[in-house]
Amino acid sequence: ELKVEQNPLFLSMQEGKNYTIYCNYSTTSDRLYWYRQDPGKSLESLFVLLSNGAVKQEGRLMASLDTKARLSTLHITAAVHDLSATYFCAVDGYGGATNKLIFGTGTLLAVQP
Amino acid sequence: ETGVTQSPTHLIKTRGQQVTLRCSSQSGHNTVSWYQQALGQGPQFIFQYYREEENGRGNFPPRFSGLQFPNYSSELNVNALELDDSALYLCASSSGPGANVLTFGAGSRLTVL
Q1: Are the beta carbons of A75 and A98 closer than 8 angstroms?
Q2: How far apart are CA A81 and CA B51, in angstroms?
Q3: Which residue, A17, A59, B43, B111, shows the most beta carbons closer than 10 Å to its own?
Q4: What pLDDT shows up at residue B46?
Q5: Average pLDDT, whole number, for chain B?
Q6: Exposure of A76 in the CB half-sphere (CA atoms within 13 A)
Q7: Tens of pLDDT along A34-64?
Q8: pLDDT number for residue A80
Q9: Does B94 touch chain A (CB under 8 A)?
Q10: Is the CB of A88 less than 8 angstroms away from the CB of B42?
Q11: Which of B45, B90, B101 has the highest number of chain A CBs within 10 A, making it the mutation to test binding with A?
Q12: CB-CB under 8 Å, A99 with B100
């Protein structure tokens, strides 16, 4: 059974600091997704990583993928309060590129002023 | 271009009742997937519809069923509601089962009393 684990589950950080969220998955997968979810809201797509060594950046967020280690990271640079949200990683869970996603448990990020 | 729309946004049912949730896919998208997100958890894949046929199913019992219509909109039906069915139900559409972009709707929040 494919498992996707994130850590930490909860992250409280100060504005201006850097931190990394880790996403480990248990079997091979063609794609790795990162989503943001604000309380009571739907999922907003942040990144789709398609190959080993892929790196994508958008603003203060940068995601990378190491398929050999089955690890993705989401790095936050100089955090601001607006980044407070829950972040999920997800992989294609049912073989190949099917977009039937298995999500991690989520990381609740709270950025304190 | 309209996004994914879901209805109703909120509803309350009692144990044993049945519920139907609706989803209109984004323009140009022919594939619809449904996810269940319990409070504090990551979304869980329920099933996917493509060309009006079920195209993969997660670990959900048969009382969870669905339909896709010729205009690619979709319904999720849940029979014999249980308390644990209380969750946010998310619909996601894509331009095909292998597409690497999923667009999520705002969700339908179901409370079972």
Answers
A1: no
A2: 43
A3: B43
A4: 96
A5: 94
A6: 27
A7: 999 998 888 999 999 988 889 999 999 999 9
A8: 95
A9: yes
A10: yes
A11: B45
A12: yes
